[in-house]
UniProtKB/TrEMBL annotation:
One of its GO terms (biological process) is cellular respiration. Its EC number is 1.9.6.1. One of its GO terms (molecular function) is molybdopterin cofactor binding. Its cofactor is [4Fe-4S] cluster; Mo-bis(molybdopterin guanine dinucleotide). Catalytic subunit of the periplasmic nitrate reductase complex NapAB. Receives electrons from NapB and catalyzes the reduction of nitrate to nitrite. The keyword 4Fe-4S applies. It catalyses: 2 Fe(II)-[cytochrome] + nitrate + 2 H(+) = 2 Fe(III)-[cytochrome] + nitrite + H2O. Keywords: 4Fe-4S, Electron transport, Iron, Iron-sulfur, Metal-binding, Molybdenum, Nitrate assimilation, Oxidoreductase, Periplasm, Signal, Transport. Belongs to the prokaryotic molybdopterin-containing oxidoreductase family. NasA/NapA/NarB subfamily. This is nitrate reductase (cytochrome). One of its GO terms (cellular component) is membrane.
Amino acid sequence: LTPPPITQTRSTCCYCGVGCGVLIDSDGTRITGIQGDPDHPANRGRLCTKGLTLPLTAQQQTGRALYPELRLNRHMPRQRVDWDTALDTVAQRFADIIQRHGPDAVALYVSGQLLTEDYYVFNKLAKGLIGTNNIDTNSRLCMSSAVAAYKLALGADGPPTCYDDLELADCVLFAGSNMAWAHPVLYRRLEAAKAADAQIKWIVVDPRRTDTAAQADLHLQIQPGTDVALFNGMLHHLIWEGLIDPAYIDAHTAGFAELKRLVRDYTPRMAAEICGVLEADLITAAEWMGRSSAALSLYCMGLNQSAHGTDKNLALINLHLATGQIGKPGAGPFSLTGQPNAMGGREVGGMANMLAAHRDITNAEHRAEVAALWGIAPAQLSPNPGLPAVALFEAVRAGQIKAIWVVCTNPVHSMPDIDKVRAALQQAEFVVVQEAYGNTDTVPFADVLLPATSWGEKSGTVTNSERRISRVRPAIAAPGEARADWQIADAVAQRLQNLLPSRPQGLFGFADAETIFNEHRSLTTDRDLDISGLDYPLLEQLGPQQWPWPSGASGGQARRYSDGVFATADGRARFHATPYRPVAEPTNSRYPFHLLTGRLRDQWHGMSRTGRVPALWAHTPQATLSMHPMDAERRGLQAGQLVKISSKRGQLILPLAFSDEVTTGTVFAAMHWNAQFLHCGGINETTLGSVDPQSAQPELKHAAVRIEAA
Ligand code: SF4
């Protein structure tokens, strides 16, 4: 028999925010291979282990959600039903609850792994049709502190930098980012630049000696949560030594005097003491940054997943503004997006406090603009911000929200203090889970399971960490009866319109992903992320492009604020005086260890995809708790022994591993493992739901715990 011909489809990796381009080989029914796209500017042909093994995940239908399922009561298992029955049920139950209790009695919890087009339709469904802003996303757990800080300091969301800056910086500060593992393809570009120029300095700020830290010229192994004190101490030294840029501060910023008053107290000695590092090291870091011709900061969850995440971001941005290290090649604060499309989700306003195209719900002018563009009355848009992730699930638990629709995410794994999330989903009157996989920790709570398409089967766009929009294209048909996420949302929306005649009509019935993208870009006109000039044919012709790309433009913008004019009302960036505050849950005699959480190199989120590839287990074959050997010796614990990790909220049992990557008094566990792999819950059994007051992002990175023999 002649084997079927292999065709190649240009698409994008579905894992991290690097957004690597891929070429997918398929024989019409199966994905048979993958290569890095040599023409994609993000990766130039490279892929990491996760990207390279994507075809192995696509070949397995085991564990996929293939058919709609429904249960009529909680004592019955779900049964397979046809799509109309499932969609009618979802629409009817949501309509009933909205009519009985009002629009804020329902909620949607979506995902930074959705495509922009999916995100757009869900956001329009919640805000335009239902009239609730109770739509939040797992991006709240990932990037919301970076968003809050960009808006406060620079006037708009989105990094001012681009990937080409990686090769142009002569000082690179990594803060709370193990980039060698979490964003490996970009890290290779940095490594190559450093190999070519020995003068380039790397500073890593991290309480763990990660692989990234091990390669740094200077590792500031700070005590957990002390980043703000460190950055304030560095700024103190920069001011004292005259290493700031007064001309830049005068011309382009506001608020420096107040910040200067605050950091007067943060002498390098005092800051170094708080951080548990050497004063001389703190000074060296400040000197390298202050004397650099182009300083770039790369940061991720170590700053964001904190009850003071916005302040940590702001304190770092202060350093860039004070030294004029922003808006020029190789310089600036650069948040590395965790998920593949957290940026795209923000662009369509898919969070509880946002409206489309980076508009704010509380801004009446913004509501009027969106209402006009959707062709509805401004009063149809609720002026009240919806509930962000942690508060949203709390409201479900309290019975205030009665129906929840979870899309493409696994909150029973990823939310802090998981037991409360389980209780919430048990308490809810009606739970819909829309998923590509039928065996996540959240699926057992579903009254209706809606099977969705996944990577290799979907069409749309994603935006990566450098504001670059790439096409995602299908290489094979969806398995079973799975449908595109936007199609499912659109089908429910059309039914809901009929059931809620007093709500706006005619908002749905999208033909395809391109139609959705065109509507989305029409809402961006004259906004900071204006892509009114960028459409699918242009993306087809030119490949992935960066925003903004307004109508009539001949290209996107690699760097923002190069002219020193920021997106604030007066064009000036804002300094923010950020006092240091300790972690939300300090250690004490009952819970004496700092627990740090983080990622592994070859696993992704809750492992629903990567956990199915044997090759990806080779790097880290089993879940462990890392502890410094001196701590273990003091407690009489052996390597490999099972230990119980307990916090005020919950516990789990893991084998112990000795590691000098952590300091004494600190332990580390990866965030990926969950009930599927451990026979008990994951590390978020122990984490706490304390959130940043400005971004509502929870402190997933740290908790106080006790460790004892199991
Ligand atoms: Fe995929 Fe990220 Fe790896 Fe690129 S670096 S191949 S986007 S997981």
